[in-house]
Amino acid sequence: MSKKIQKILKSGWDNFQRQGILTFATLFIIFIAVFLASSLYLFAGAIYFLNDRLQERIDISVFFKENTAREDIVKIEDQLKAVPEVKKVEYFSADDAYQKFVQDHKDDKYYEALQAIEMNPFLASIHIQAKNPSQYGSISTFLKKDEFQSVIQNVNDYKRGTVIQKLTDLTKNIRTIGLALIGFLSLIAVLVTFNTIKLTIFSQKAEIEIMRLVGAKRRFIQGPYFIQGLLCGLSASLLAFVLFGAMAFLLQEKLSGIFLGFNMFDFYKANIWELVALQFGSGLLLGTVSSLLAVQAYLKK
Amino acid sequence: MIKLENITKTYPLSFNRETKVALQNVSFDVEAGEFITFCGRSGAGKTTLLKLIACQEQPTEGAVFFDGENLGKIKDKDICAFRHQIGFVFQDYKLLSYKTVFENVSYALEVTDYQNGVMDNEVSQILELVGLEKQTNSFPHELSGGEKQRVAIARALIHRPKVILADEPTGNLDPYHTRDVLKILNKVNELGTTILLATHSKEIVNSLQRRVITIEDGQIRSDEANGRFIL
Known about the structure:
The complex is a heterodimer of chains A (301) and B (231). Chain A is α+β, with helices and mostly antiparallel strands. Chain A contains eleven helices and four strands; from the N terminus they run ααβαβααβαβααααα. Chain A folds into two domains: 3-54 and 167-300, no CATH class; 66-150, 2-Layer Sandwich (Alpha-Beta Plaits), CATH 3.30.70.3040. Chain A is elongated. The two termini of chain A are 32 Å apart. Chain B has two domains: 1-81 and 164-170 and 195-231, Rossmann fold (3-Layer(aba) Sandwich), CATH 3.40.50; 86-160, no CATH class. Chain B has seven helices and ten strands. In chain B, helix 6 links the parallel strand 7 (163-167) and strand 8 (194-199). Chain B starts with a strand and ends in a 7-residue tail after the last strand. The model of chain B has no long low-confidence stretch (mean pLDDT 90).
């Protein structure tokens, strides 16, 4: 390593250590921006999770006439599985439906009513999930073919058609609004960070003038500020990484209740490399680019 | 060595289109090894004159020559090399606040192509010369005014410049430190460095007994080889 580069590195490290308030202000604002970026990333993850959960809860239920043979139902199941739009087909016998009802209502008056009639009023059914909510229409049309009408009692989609459409629209809107919000907040974070760093470097204007006066070249002036910005970005990212991890760990149960089972800490662990790239990438970029641009402004004058 | 030819310098005033004339039709020559005092009231144009010689400002009219080179035509990339030939001393010291005494002085060498081992020796020697060998690791805010000015002088001398531009270097100092600073400047001049000193102090001008250029309202009022304070 050349002596000049060594001097620049040492000078940048000295500035980082010695300029307490400047370093703290820069580090703090980068930390806020990185933390915000991480939170937005998490928010986006939560939106996709909620979207998937909502879609999972949408299905078409097909109820079969009493005494329909299991083989006939299996045939329909097989045909449905061959339809490209179908994601999952699940069979519930009349007994399964009875047991589920008993389990869900064992402590209320519906259970007493069921016992009073002394028979199983439930029908065998299959529940179909589409790969995409917009595909429920074509699955429904498929089930209304004449060949199935001898065994099918009813296809429970006539009401869900609207519900399905509404849920689809809602999830689309949530995603669009969420992404727009993420974009807007990211822009604000970048602008606020850049201007704060610019203001903190404003205090260095006189120092930069002195450096120019004693004949320091551009690179020799910019170099230490670049290193200082790099160190601020690195420390802020490291701090954000640790604190965000701790927050995800501590709040995982509380937030899981709010976000339909979305586990923040599991998400953090599953996407750790993407988060590391996001946090360290944004931190280092903000630290170095902001300090370079701010010093550049004084070098021109 | 330095030649100012019909220099006029004006500054635009804010909020209207008028301009302030800082220097008007100023011409003089400086020979190598001279000690010149620029004397005049505050706002007479002394600092502007030094800034023009340091290539910090460009004249509105006229030209400044340094070793025969027109400073108005000097390229941006060559300004650093040009500044290595000059040492600066200011009333407000202009030290780098986050660097130690040693680092402030060595910075002026680091920006040139000096060897590291030689540099440490030179810096130690110059700090000994100005009596700051015990404060090498102190920061500027830990020093007195006189000590700060001695650091500034050490920084100005370290790279053995051809010229030292000293703008009111004793303005913030008591009489004892003023005498020390003048003693150092005299010593440096005896060793061959050209000194251009701007001051409005009658005592300093009269004690030096060197060439004095008196400036009044941006114009040269007198230029005497063995001048005295006449304002």
